[in-house]
Amino acid sequence: MKLFDAHTHIDMKHYKNDREMVIQRAKDTGVVGMVTSSINPGSFRRTLGIVQKHDTYIYHTAGCQPSLLKPAEAEKILHLIDKYADDIVAIGEAGLDYHWVKDSKKRKAQEPLFEKFITKAQDLGLPIVVHARKAEGRAADILEEYNMENVLMHCYDGPSEVTQRIVKNKWYVTLPANFGRYRNRVQAAEMIPLELIMLETDGPYLSPVEGRNESANIIHGAKSLAEIKDIPIEEAAKITTENAISFYGL
Ligand SMILES: [Zn+2]
């Protein structure tokens, strides 16, 4: 079986002591590659080293943590992206977070920063990985205003109105390994054609099993998707892997 973890955070401290074993377990489970998302300048630099060591297995998408992002940090990240543009496969995660950010002025303040990442993706001709937590509709508005084409709505959990727009725009979504537990995500998996779906762990978060999440657990997502689409798990794995390779241009 060929699986692909389209979004994880392999640089995080949760993997500090056994990162190589985590990567090996992923390989042993049939994970043929992964894309890891850096979320601040320190994370960016750590990720550069990891990706270099695991060339052609781990790929880097460079982004931020929208709920914590300040303009000065955004500038630092954008500067690193320019400097290392040849070493990254996508921009993001970037976007809007209404889950942690409740204040309307602070929510609004996320938008110009999101737009800078969109513009950077367009300037560099790279796809964008969007973090839109409880803000799927507003993020879709902005992406449509910018005519952004190569979009991945990561860890997608939006309502059916937004899901319809995603399908219409031919944007991709990733569903986490434990997505079978969430009503919105199961509904999205039903509505969105398989050609637009990828699987992710978002490790170390969102584990389908007890404890820390890791890429080997992507199999749980493939299992849920196969059940929903009524296809063999091998096919769910194969198509989502092909989608990730095509979206990220690997
Ligand atoms: Zn993430």
General description of the model:
This protein has 250 residues and is an alpha/beta fold. It has one domain: Metal-dependent hydrolases (TIM Barrel). The chain is 45% helix and 18% strand. The protein is built from nine helices and eight strands. An eight-stranded parallel β-sheet has the order 1-2-3-4-5-6-7-8. Helix 4 links the parallel strand 4 (90-97) and strand 5 (128-133). Helix 6 (160-169) runs parallel beside helix 7 (183-191). The longest helix is centred in the middle third of the chain and has 21 residues, at 104-124. The radius of gyration is 17 Å and the shape is globular. It binds zinc ion. Zinc ion binds next to loops.
Task: List its traits.
250 residues; alpha/beta; 8-stranded parallel beta sheet; 8 strands
CATH superfamily: Metal-dependent hydrolases
Number of separate domains: 1
Structural class: alpha/beta
> Which CATH class is shown?
Alpha Beta
Output mean pLDDT.
97
Spatial shape: globular
CATH topology: TIM Barrel
The percentage of residues in β strands lies in 15-25%
Write out the distinct hetero groups bound to the structure: zinc ion
Biggest sheet strand order reads 1-2-3-4-5-6-7-8
State the gist of this model.
By secondary structure, the chain is an alpha/beta fold. It is 45% helix and 18% strand. It contains 9 helices and 8 strands.
How is the secondary structure organized here?
Elements: E1 3-8, H1 19-28, E2 31-38, H2 41-53, E3 58-62, H3 71-83, E4 90-97, H4 104-124, E5 128-133, H5 136-145, E6 151-153, H6 160-169, E7 172-176, H7 183-191, E8 197-200, H8 218-229, H9 233-247
Parallel strand pairs: 1-2, 2-3, 3-4, 4-5, 5-6, 6-7, 7-8
Bound molecules: zinc ion (ZN).
